[in-house]
Amino acid sequence: MKMLKIKLIFRNLIKYYRKISIYKKFLVVSYIQIFIPIILIGVLSFRISSDLIFKKYVGYTSDVIKTARLRIVDKINELNSITQDILYQTELYNVLDKSMKNMDYYDDVTSLTNKFRKIILGHLDVQSIGVFTKEKKLCIVDNTSKEIGLDEIIPSQISLEKVYKIAEMGNGKPIWYVTLLKKDKENKAAVLITRCINNPKTLKFEGILAVMINTELFDKTFSELVAEKSQAISVVGNGIFISTKGEINKEKVLKFMSQIRNKNGIVTYTSNEYIVNILPIKQVEWYIVTSIPVKILFRDIDKLRMWLIVLCFLSFVITSAMSIMLSMDFLKPINAIVEATKRIRKGEYKTIENLDRKDELGILIDNFNSMVVKINHLINSIYKEQITRKEAELKVLQTQLNPHFLFNILESINWLAQLNGVSQISDVVIALSKLLEVNLKEEKFLTLEEEIKYISSYVSILKINFGEENLKLEVDVDRKALKLRIPKLLIQPLVENSIFHGIRPKGFGRIFVGCYIWNDKLAIIVKDDGIGIQPEKLKGIRQNLEDNSEVLLDQYERSYTRIGLVNVVKRLKLIYGRDANFSIESLPQRGTTIKIEILLDALSKAVEESLQEFSGEGEEVNV
């Protein structure tokens, strides 16, 4: 009897379910699916999450400390390489040699200072560079934007003798040294790289090189990695805290560090107050330390309990609202299909409004619309479609014939000019054909050889206005560089700019275009002997180019210079980024020189990316 009653109740429920609307069916199923999981999730989440919070903090700090070590090691290797590059400077050995012989080495110091200044400007992590002998300092260059440099440290706070002893420990290799500096009643850590300077010819010891590192590089590393306010992180060297983010118990950390025996992996210390992770940096015998208060973990667990209750309630409300919206979303296209089928019965072949759906209902509506369109097509549209297709074919043929037709006309003019002995017209027509040929190409990149030919054709046309003797073009290109591919029309705007702003006001002049491969870079030089640029105006142009803003010019100049300079600089930045460099130099009445430098690797990489993009576009069209 009980089984029969249960079966009867079950059957009645099924009958009732089949009778109710789809909207109500969605709501019933949704509430069942929402209520049961929320209860289970609320009960289990608290126990599971409390354990996960602790593991999460420990695991998170382990990842942070490993990432910080990787970044610091990369910086250490990079800065060691910089010191090695400094030892390759011939001016360095000239200064040391002349100082030992008591000769005047002022000019050599000036040249060496310029080299050091370029290194400091190119590497923000380098704060100061100095060269010393046992008796005196020979050359010190500081980054003037920083407060402390080697001038304030050696020999006032660190003696030359001590610096020598530190450098000798490396036996020619770089030695990292950390010390505390006293300034304005505050102790600040200073990081130095010292290494011996041995004469490359005689291998004799002649002096030491000292490089002071900007400790802000550690602060930046930590600020990017550590987002938790409760977490503290430090880098410690020679028992000195070089950089610290957050509050940390330095005495306990130093005590923990003295007990470390594992020189490779992370060492974790847990107390009633803190969880401390320590990771050695073997390259410089430093340590990275993270610290988290234990009370923060329990505070988060208490918050979790409250938030779980709130979230369960919000989840019920939100999911209920979403269920209602979902049911309405399903009913809308179903009702639209029902209404459309009724219209078809009446002979109205109209498609369903685009509902922008990609699911099964969207596919059903698309198929329904396709069916209606095909019916209309078979009944009413065959004749119109044939006419439209013919017109489209004619437009395509016309588009294809126009460039061919233009080249045929130019070729006819060329033959007429040669038959009538007018060689100048023939030369201009040939040059114009070459210009059109390059402009009509769809490639984004051309070989340097094609770009030079384009420039030669362009200048040969301009000689008609200037005169053959008043406009000269000189080209000097490395053979190895001829096949390198550069952005289309990269050099021509610079040549045009030189002609119209440097040579045209003067009436005559010479333009030099040089392309060379040097130091793994392609160097492009465009130089003219025109009227040049006034210093104030040149300064404004440089500033505008650096800020990616348009160059403010007179009405006469605006059509050329804005396109010539701004366009080239923006294209270089967009295509090559920091791998390309643009510079402009000019003197009044002496001419202007523009130089572009692009890494060879960046040239090939940009071409490969362009080919991949072109291939991707082709695939989309085929689809």
From TrEMBL:
Residues 328-380 form the HAMP domain. Pfam families: HAMP (PF00672), HATPase_c (PF02518), His_kinase (PF06580). One of its GO terms (molecular function) is kinase activity. It is found in: Membrane. It comes from Caldicellulosiruptor bescii (Anaerocellum thermophilum). Its main location: membrane. Keywords: Kinase, Membrane, Phosphoprotein, Transferase, Transmembrane, Transmembrane helix. It comes from the Bacteria. The lineage of its organism: Bacteria, Bacillati, Bacillota, Bacillota incertae sedis, Caldicellulosiruptorales. This is Two-component system, sensor histidine kinase YesM. The chain crosses the membrane at residues 26-46, 306-326.
